[in-house]
Amino acid sequence: MPSITQAEFGRFQRFIYDAAGITLSSAKQALVAGRLGKRLTHHQLDSYEAYFQLITSDQHADERQLALDLLTTHETYFFREIKHFEFLRAQALAARERGQPLRVWSAASSSGEEAYSMAMVLVDCLGDAPWEVLGTDISASMIANAARGLYSMERARHVPPDYLRRFCLKGTGPYAGRLLIDPQVRSRVRFARANLNEALPDLGLFDLVFLRNVMIYFNDETKRGVVSRVSATIKPGRHLCIGHSESLNHISGELEQVAASIYCKPA
């Protein structure tokens, strides 16, 4: 496999920034080479420059999407940052008291664990009452994988035991070591592709949005655009959760912080 030059890496830095608003530091050069190297082998190419020319040609839109998927896939797991799911539970119980429906959005859902974690909480709190979970991601392959709801058991280590028993089906035979999200949960979650760095499709309005552990990849200008677009989908008086390592300081004046990593859109 050929090595990636600084100039070639710079091209992919620009590619991923233009496509997704993600800023790749120079420390990610080996990651880019590793993730794209197999595609060079697949196409029998002898340089990353040749692969870049391939994905930026009009005839290879599918390969361009695949490269984007490879460079934007981030690790996630069920019930990451549990305090936000406790907040979701409180919001769900309040909606039940008011007799109102609840819509929540996992805005960077990756392979779907966050969206399904949200759905488990809502099944538990709201049952058959009207509620919806939407999960979106820039990666088409991640969306397809998320919709299947099939995961390795290792990824379920943070699922509460009661939820694991009620909402997850343990695989046997060829599926040993894997779990499938139960259909009663899976049927209440909708997945769609959306690029947070572009004008959003018509998603409707939400009571709670999780936009977590994705803005660390954006510069301040991109963050402002993303937060503005996402804020427009939040109902007045409702909330946005960001990652615990993230902040909206100097990024947005549209939202008020009400707790660590939790913001409210003024009514």
Task: Characterise this structure.
This protein is an alpha/beta fold and 267 residues long. It folds into 2 domains: 6-72, Chemotaxis receptor methyltransferase CheR, N-terminal domain (Chemotaxis Receptor Methyltransferase Cher, domain 1, Orthogonal Bundle); 82-264, Rossmann fold, CATH 3.40.50. It has helices at residues 6-20, 29-43, 48-55, 61-72, 82-98, 113-126, 140-148, 161-167, 183-186, 220-231, and strands spanning 102-106, 131-137, 150-152, 168-170, 178-181, 189-193, 206-211, 234-242, 256-259, 262-264. Strand 7, helix 10 (220-231) and strand 8 form a beta-alpha-beta unit.
Task: Please name the defining characteristics of this protein.
42% helix, Chemotaxis Receptor Methyltransferase Cher, domain 1, 267 residues, 18% strand, 10 helices, 3-stranded antiparallel sheet, 10 strands, 7-stranded mixed sheet, alpha/beta, 2 domains, Rossmann fold
Q: What's the mean pLDDT score? A: 93
- By CATH, the topology of the largest domain is Rossmann fold
CATH superfamily of the largest domain: Vaccinia Virus protein VP39
Total number of domains: 2
How many E strands?
A: 10
The strands making up the biggest β-sheet line up spatially as 6-2-1-7-8-10-9
Q: Tell me, what's the shape?
A: globular
Derived structural class: alpha/beta
Q: In percent terms, what proportion of residues is strand?
A: 15-25%
Helix content: 40-55%
H/E series, N to C?
HHHHHEHEHEHEEHEEHEEE
User: DSSP helix count?
Assistant: 10
Rg from alpha-carbon coordinates: 20 Å
The CATH architecture of the largest domain can be given as 3-Layer(aba) Sandwich
Spans of at least 5 consecutive residues whose pLDDT stays below 50 are: none
Q: The biggest beta sheet, please?
A: 7 strands, mixed
CATH C-level class of the largest domain is Alpha Beta
Ends: how far apart?
56 Å
